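User: Please predict the structure of the protein below. I'd like the answer in structure-token form so I can feed it into my own downstream comparison script.

Assistant: Understood. Taking the following sequence of 138 residues as input:
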Amino acid sequence: MALDDETAARYRPEDSATLLALLPELRVQTARAKVHLEAVQRATEANGEFDVGLHEMQNEALAAFSTRLDPDDEVGRERLDVLRAEFAKQRDQLPDGSNNENEYVRVFSYLVELAQRERWIGDELVRRGLIPEWPSES
């Protein structure tokens, strides 16, 4: 993961103590973002389950109403058509989940930025000789 040039340029002149001091806060923000991401994911799943359940319930109600109608009952058929249209209108007014998806992408991008910064700081501390390099498998 590469840190963007602007952020790297801002971090590079900082002394090592400042970079080390950033690590705990980056980890706190990572934990907060993960909790938020899980909440968004649960809300998205719950909305999907609600939409499916509502659709099934409406279809069952329409089917039950339709089977009770006499084939020659024009008024009843008109009522059924009105109910179908009303149910369709209600389904169209339900949120489509795109707000949750946008929030998920936004928070996930934030998590990636945090990970990039933490990784960059670790690599920079190795480059400065403050942390030994990981032993290579030669």
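That's the full token string. The chain has a mean pLDDT of 81.
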